[in-house]
Amino acid sequence: MNRERRVLRLARGVQGRGLRPSIARIATAATLTGSVRNTRAGVELVLEGEATAIDRAVRQIEATEACDVVTVSSERAAVTSSAFVIADSDERDAPSIDAIVLDRRICAACTRELEHDGRRAGYALNACVECGPRFTAIEALPFDRARTTMRSFGPCPACEIEYRSLDDRRAHAQMIACPTCGPQYSLRGADRRSIAVGAAAIERAIEAIARGEIIAMLGVGGFQLLCDGRDARAIAELRRRKRRPHKPFALLVESAEHAAALAHIDAVERAALESPAGPIVLVRKRGDAVLAEVAPGLARVGLLLPTSAAHALIARAMGGPVVCTSGNAQGEPVVTDVEASFDALAGIADGWLVHDRPIAQRADDSVVQVVDGRARVRRVGRGMAPLSFEVGGVDRLCVGAHRDVSPVLVVRGTAWQWPYVGAMDTRAARAAFARAVRAMCELSERTPLEYVCDAHPDYATTQWAEQRSPVVTRVLHHHAHVAATLAEHGARSALGFAWDGTGLGPDRSLAGGEVLSVSEGGARWVARLRPFALVGGDAAARDGRRAYVGAAREAGAEIEAALAPLAALCECDAFAPRSSSVGRLFDAVAFALGLCERGTYEGHAAMLLEAIALGDDAAPYPFRIDGSTIDWRELWHGVLRDRADAPLAAARFHRSLVAVIEAVCQRHDSPVVALAGGCFNNALLLERATHRLRERGRVVLSAERVPAGDGAIALGQAWVSATEARQRVVAL
Ligand SMILES: [Zn+2]
Ligand SMILES: [Zn+2]
Predict the structure, then answer these.
(1) Can you give the CATH number for the domain in which 230 is found?
(2) Looking at residues 524-551, what average pLDDT do you find?
(3) Which of 149, 196, 208, 411 could serve as a FRET partner for 702 with CA atoms 20 to 30 Å apart?
(4) Could you read off the pLDDT of 423-456 as tens digits, one per residue?
(5) pLDDT score of 587
(6) Are residues 402 and 328 in the same domain?
(7) Are 269 and 397 contained in the same domain?
C-alpha cells in the first residue's frame, strides 16, 4: 500500500468562507485522515492515506472551492491520526496577506432566510460561511472570531450547535450570529436617542426613506447615505446637504432583474453585479428609467445589489432603486465610527441606522466598469481590497499621490494594496490615511524599512513620508502610472501612455500628456503633449475657462472678449505655468462645446464629453507629431469648426486622441503598449485605442484590478522602488 502524509497550502482568500468544513466532508468521504486549520499564512491542510485517494480529494477540493492547492511536502508515512479534524488555528507563522479574507455580499441562501419564519427571519445582520463581513471586521490574523469585531458577541446555544455541526451551512462560521446573540441595528435621531431597535429599526428606517428622508446607515465597511431613488426632491436635498451638485450617486437595487429594468446589462456586467464582492457597476442607463438627478448628464449610472441583509431588506421593501452613496461630508473619508458619525453627518442625515459591530477596517464600496469585455475597477474598496501583487524588494511603504490614495505596504516582496482612502485635502482624510497605514503594519506585524512617495513636494503624503524618514524614494507620477500597469500584468517593459489631470514631470513641469518607455532599466520619456498655459496651475483643475483660454491662446485662436482678462494672465509664466495635461485638454474642449464651465468632481468635464460623443465612424481631426511633441493645435481648430454640432465634435475629439496614440506607437516599435492614467477611465478612449492597437499587432495593457487613475500610484511606486535600476529616469 502506498500510504502518504501530504502537507498542502491553499492560496489566497480562502479563510472565512466555510472551506474547512467543506474540506473535512471531502476528506472524510474519501476515508482520509489528517487536519485542516487556519494559519496566519493561509489555510494549511494535512491529508493522510492512499496517494491516489489524496490526489482525488485535492482535485475535488480545487473544483468545489475554486482554489489552488499547493503541495508543501509529502512523505511516505505510517498514518499518524485516526480521523480528520478541523484543528485550532496556528498563530506561529508570519502573517501573510493570504490569510486576509475579503468581505462578501449577502448570499442567496441568507437572502431567502430573511423572508422565512425561521429564527433569522428579518435579521438585518444575517450572514453565513459564504457571506458577510470579513476584512472590515479583522483586528488581527488568522481569521478567527476572537480576533474580529465579533469577539464581544458570544454565540447562543442554538448558534453553537450549528457551528459544530459539519452538515450545517454555518459550520465553523467565525461570524455566526442570530437575533438572540448577534449584533443589532438601532434607529437613532440626530439627538442620538434610540427610536427603535432590531427589526423595528429597519422598518422605521424604510418608512423614513419612503417619506423622502435621508438615512445614514452603517453598512459593512462604513456609513452610507440612503434616500428614495425615485424621489427627485429627496435626491436634490441630498445633493444640497452634501454640497455635491452633480457627482453621480449609486443606486441600490434588489436584484439583477431590477437592475436590468434601469439599465442595459450584459453578461459580464451582470456577473460583476452578482459577484461576492458586490461592487457598484457603472452601466448604460435605459432611456429615462433613471431620474436625471441621479447621474446628471451622464450616459451611465452606478448600480449595486444588496451588500448585507439590511440592504436586502430595504431594497425589497422599497421595490425600486434606493440612492446609496458614501457616508461622508464633501472631501472627507467615509465615516466608520457611530459616535463620530453624529457630528460628521450632522446636517446631512435625518436619521441614523446603526449597528453595534464596530468597523475595524474602513472600506468604501468598490466601483467597477466593464470596458472591452473586462470588469475594471475604478475604486478599490469593500470586497476587493486588500489586493496583492508580487513586486520584490525590501519591506517598504508606498504612500501614493494626493487623490484616490490607496497605500501599498510591501511585505517580503508582496505588495498589499489597502482600500481607497480618498484625496488628502482634509485633516480627517489624512487621519484616515495614517489609520490605514497603522492597520497595515499591525496586521502584517511589519515596520517598513523604507518610504516611497510621489516626486511632488507639496503632496501631504510626500510630506508625511519625509517626516518619517530622511531617506525616501521619490517616484515620478507618470513613471508610477505606467509601472502600476506593468505590476498588475506581471510585464517587464512597455511603451506607456500616462495621460491624466496633473503630476510633476521630470523637468518639474505640470505634466499629464506623457509617453514614456518603461522597463526594468528605468523610464525614458519619448513624447509629450504640446504644453499650454494654465492660469493658476494646479488650481486650474476643473475650471474649464482657464483650460480653454490657455489652449485657445496656444493654438492662436480668437478668444472671446469676456475671457480677455483671463487670457492676459496667460502671458505671465508665474501666474500661468505651462501644462501638458490631456485631462486639461478635455476640460478645454468641454468648455468650447458649452458642456461644462466648472467641473464639480474629478473627471466631470471629460465624462460629459464622453457621454455626448456620437458617431462611431467620426473622422479624426488633423494633428502633428513633431519630434517628441504631440502638436494638437490643428485639432483644436477642428473642434472649434464643429462647435455647432457638439456630439460630432466630441466623437471626433476622442477619435483624434486614438489616432495620436496610434501615430506615436508607429514611431516606436515596442510590442507592448500600456495605457495608464485617469484619462483611460474614459471607456470610449480606452476601448477604441485598445482595438486599433491590437489590430496593429500590439499587446495592450491597461488597468483592471487597480484603477487607471491615481489609485494605482502606490502600486507603481512599489514596482519602481523594487530596484535601483528601475528608478533611473531620462527626461525628454
Ligand atoms: Zn450567506
Ligand atoms: Zn445565536
Answers:
(1) 3.90.870.10
(2) 93
(3) 411
(4) 999 999 999 999 999 999 999 999 998 999 999 9
(5) 96
(6) no
(7) no
361-399: pLDDT as tens digits: 999 999 999 999 999 999 999 999 999 999 999 999 999
Distance 111 CA to ligand 1 centre (A): 7
**Burial degree of 117 (CB within 10 A; 0-12, 13-18, 19+):** exposed
In a shared domain, residues 536 and 456: no
Does 572 reside within a domain? yes
Domain count, the chain: 4
Does 11 score more than 80 pLDDT? no
Using one digit for the tens of pLDDT, what is the confidence trace for 549-602? Answer: 999 999 999 999 999 999 999 998 889 999 999 999 999 999 999 999 999 998
Instruction: Report CA(195)–ligand 1 centroid distance (Å).
Output: 29
CA 358, CA 355: separation in Å to the nearest integer? Answer: 8
Shared domain check, 671 and 541: yes
Rounded distance between C-alpha atoms, residue 473 and residue 440, angstroms: 20
Ligand 1 centroid distance, CA of 689 (Å): 41
Q: Please report the sign of the dihedral spanned by the C-alpha atoms of residue 43, residue 49, residue 52, residue 57.
A: negative
Strand 387-390: give its sheet, edge to edge. 387-390, 414-417, 408-411, 396-398, 450-454, 472-475
Taking residues 81-108, report their average pLDDT.
87
Domain match, 531 and 628 both: yes
Q: What distance, in Å, lies between the first and last C-alpha atoms of the chain?
A: 70
Ligand 2 centroid, distance to 159 Cα (angstroms) = 4
Q: Are residues 450 and 360 in the same domain?
A: no
Read off the pLDDT band of 187 (50, 70, 90): very high
Cα 219 to Cα 185: distance, rounded to the nearest angstrom: 10
Note whether 350 and 251 are same-domain residues.
yes
What SS3 class is residue 114? helix
Residues 58 and 190 in one domain: no
User: Using one digit for the tens of pLDDT, what is the confidence trace for 600-620?
Assistant: 998 999 999 999 998 778 899
Whether 94 has a pLDDT exceeding 90, the answer reads no
Q: What is the rounded distance in angstroms from the CA atom of residue 713 to the CA atom of residue 465?
A: 15
- Among residues 326, 350, 368, the one where a domain terminates is 368
For the full predicted model, state whether its pTM sits above 0.90.
yes
- With 80 as the cut, is the pLDDT of residue 711 above it? yes
* Cα–Cα distance for residue pair 86/75, rounded to 1 Å: 21
**How far is ligand 1, taken at its centre, from the CA of residue 69, in Å?**
24
Whose CA is closest to 398, among 57, 76, 712? Answer: 712
Structural domain including 223 reads 185-368
> Would residue 510 count as lying in a domain?
yes
Q: Ligand 2 centre and the CA of 358: distance in Å? A: 18
Nearest-angstrom CA–CA distance, 182 and 175: 9
Task: Say how many Å lie between the CA of residue 206 and the centre of ligand 1.
Answer: 23
* Residue 108 belongs to some domain of the structure: no
Separation of CA 317 and ligand 1 centre (Å): 20
CA 182 / ligand 2 centre spacing (Å): 6
